[in-house]
């Protein structure tokens, strides 16, 4: 803990942590040392964990990087965090992110942007940018992020670390401040597969506080990392040959596929004609869900309330106008529009239907193949400001990550070399729902 606290201090300019629980982390550590001496320590004893600022931790502030949650203190602890604490993990602090998880660069945060430790003129990715940099820069052993459309995998790729998005419903969402409830997942950043697997197996599993959490038993992923059979691997033609793809990423992805074929795995190119529809489907459905989820922030129940109101209605309006950032407002408006009476069928219902097609296609492919391999991102980490005035360009950053989110299947991003500038490239692997053990074993084989 002292090692990490020192690193957090010397690397404070990266802006990864928005709050450090220094003294309580040291106290927790001392108590765990005693447990270790008595032979009674939990399986995560010594693991130092940072948590994204969208997860509730009783008695601690949670802001979702938004002004609208200014002054908000959690009344209870997220199930995911509770389970880590029960196994003696040490929670060291709260990590910066895009406001309510909306963004791909961590530039939409009331706490200011997070810097990529490899090149401080570049973004760390988002929305879990702080969580990625905290692991990248050795500010904690592992961190929790959330992934609705790529917010763990994309920043993992940009910072050169490992990031998993589990199957939707694998980890309870209790205590996670909602962005898009039918997409939100809690994921893990780490430098090695074993730590990642240990954390996920501890957090996962059914929870009475989240009726959507799966009751399926959780395998001990960390003991199933051995990969010994030839695998069937599909890669999607439209992703590897996409015009949007940076040439070095294409090269690295094809190289690894070639190597896998040479090692005796079955590697096949598959057409994915739905690729063009994945991103619009994702943005229609997530903005719809977000507009509904964020209606609770009205200046009464949580956090910020405008001091400028003169009646009830102006209190609502001004609180929300002053409290939400630009991107969040854009999404609330988009979501309200696609849910409105005249456009509901044309956009929302249509997108639900397309979601089903994408899900069926992906699940079907993953019964024929063990894995789908594709790049995590179209480009390596970009510069601050490069996309901030062009929301569509920013949304295009999620081109390859949203398929797993729309389908609900698990996906992991692992480092796959660097481009000419030395910036990390991510390789993404998807497996069928609840096949996290298989995903980890394959990722372990490749790293
Ligand atoms: N960048 C995507 C978005 O802005 C993904 C965000 C996420 O996964 N939380 O919606």
What this model shows, in words?
The protein has 447 residues and is α/β, with parallel strands linked by helices. It has a domain of 222 residues: Amidase signature (AS) enzymes (Alpha-Beta Complex). 38% of the residues lie in helices and 14% in strands. It has an 11-stranded mixed sheet with strand order 1-3-2-4-6-5-10-11-9-7-8, with helices on both faces. Helix 3 links the parallel strand 2 and strand 3. Helix 9 crosses helix 11 and helix 9 crosses helix 12. The radius of gyration is 21 Å and the shape is globular. It starts with a helix and ends with a helix. The mean pLDDT is 97. The structure holds glutamine. The site of glutamine has 14 residues, from strand 4. Belongs to the amidase family. GatA subfamily. Pfam families: Amidase. Heterotrimer of A, B and C subunits.
Question: What are the defining features of this structure?
Answer:
single chain, 447 residues, alpha/beta, Amidase signature (AS) enzymes, eleven-stranded mixed sheet, 14% strand, binds glutamine, glutaminyl-tRNA synthase (glutamine-hydrolyzing) activity
How far apart are the first and last residues' alpha carbons, in Å? 27 Å
Order of helices and strands: HEHEHEHEHEEHEHHEHHHHEHHEEH
Strand content: 5-15%
Count, helices = 15
Largest sheet: 11 strands, mixed
Remind me, CATH topology of the domain at 2-223? Amidase signature (AS) enzymes
What global shape is seen?
globular
Total strand count, please?
11
| CATH class category name of the domain at 2-223 | Alpha Beta
Q: What value does the average pLDDT take?
A: 97
CATH superfamily of the domain at 2-223: Amidase signature (AS) domain
Molecules bound to protein: glutamine
- Stretches where pLDDT falls below 50 for ≥5 residues? none
The strand line-up of the biggest sheet is 1-3-2-4-6-5-10-11-9-7-8
Helix- and strand-based class? alpha/beta
Helix content: 25-40%
Oligomeric state, counting identical vs distinct chains: single chain
* CATH architecture tag of the domain at 2-223: Alpha-Beta Complex
